[in-house]
Design a protein that fits this description.
The protein contains 2 helices and no strands. The chain is mainly α.
Length: 113
């Protein structure tokens, strides 16, 4: 009979422990990778939300600017209509009103009377 320093099955137990530790390491790496992917995805989502919000704000600013331009054009058209208006056929009160409006428009344009 051969004398052994360790009990029978010790080597197998060590092998099982070693395999289990390796498996745990692999699982730890997989969990770590999944966590990192999750974090990366969250960062991408946050960045996308910021970008979407920025685009939305830019679109709103453009719409406001277009609305302001349209209002300004409408004001200019109304002033031009008043300036071109033939007041000879109007009643005296309307004539005075439109003459005053024409004077106001001319003064705003820089003409002083």
């Amino acid at each position: 009979m051969i004398y052994q320093d360790r009990p029978i099955g010790q080597k197998a137990a060590k092998e099982r422990l070693k395999r289990r530790q390796e498996k745990d390491k692999v699982e730890d790496v997989n969990v770590t990778n999944l966590l990192q992917q999750f974090r990366d995805t969250l960062v991408e989502i946050k960045d996308q939300k910021k970008q979407d919000k920025k685009i939305m704000l830019e679109q709103q600013a453009m719409m406001i600017q277009q609305s302001q331009k349209k209002q300004e054009l409408d004001r200019i058209k109304k002033k031009e209509q008043i300036m071109k208006m033939d007041i000879s056929n109007l009643d005296p009160i309307s004539v005075v009103y439109f003459q005053n409006r024409k004077l106001e428009i001319m003064q705003k344009r820089g003409f002083n009377f």
